[in-house]
Amino acid sequence: MPDLGGLVALVTGANSGLGLESARSLAARGATVVLACRSLAKAEQARRQLQADREDSGSSGAPDEAQIDMLQLDLADLASVARAAAELAARYERIDLLLNNAGVMAPPRTLTAQGFELQFGVNHLAHYALTRLLLPLLHASASPRVVQVTSGAQYFGQIDFDDLQGECRYDRWKAYGQSKLANVVFAQELQRREPQLLSAAAHPGLARTNLQPTSVAANGSRVERIAYSLMGPLFQSAAQGALPQLFALTAPEAKPGGHYGPSELGGIKGWPKALPMAPAALDRDLAARFWQVSEELCRRAIPDL
Description:
Blueprint: E1 8-12, H1 17-28, E2 32-37, H2 40-57, E3 68-72, H3 78-91, E4 97-100, H4 118-139, E5 145-149, H5 172-193, E6 198-202, H6 211-219, H7 222-230, H8 238-241, H9 243-250, E7 259-264, E8 269-274, H10 284-298
Parallel strand pairs: 1-2, 1-4, 2-3, 4-5, 5-6, 6-7
Antiparallel strand pairs: 7-8
Helix pairs in contact: 3-4, 4-5, 4-10, 5-10
């Protein structure tokens, strides 16, 4: 990673898993990192952990405490998204790097504060709204980047315009695939509409984070618990899984509209490389329609979006 001194990076879901590992790497390269988390208590735990890393390493290049900031952000509530964006505008003159990392995976049907299906609301709509609200701060940067964290589920995802919220029929894995395809569709359309920034998407392959146990616990699925256990040897660490999103966010070689993931076993694990995205993400008509629908839905809670 290049030297990131002087840059401001915002990471959603930064208190654990891929988000925490990304924040650790960004801070180690000198960036001011904003830990955007639903729980400020968990954000504080993450901040202390990053600070302890600095003290243990004794590296003069590691961040001091002032370079780790915290922000309360509940992605299941668009009002919280709007408040967080306003708070950022009050604290910072610009945002250089935006990593839309946080997400939920395959829970029972649950609704956000505005009544959206949770996966669609958190994984896509909230990050769509946050990015739109932060565009003035991103425009103030000399070389802004925005990265959406997707997954391999994008390849079996489908944007169901007739039932985006799973109201007619809810399948939690279908809804997850839709939300992860939405991340890549959004990344592509954002690049077309905002050519002055670099918009990309990345997925971690099979990375061991809290997503899997949280999903199993929420659904009480014995079959999934056994499946994850059997797949154990295929999983890589969260630190390794974070590399594709860090590559997209910081590498000089990353391309506008790029999509990055692990290089081995069909994108399951390994070092980051450019990978094909789901074909639907390249459909310009679908992307334009999806942008408009997303805007209309978000404006119910954020009229001036």
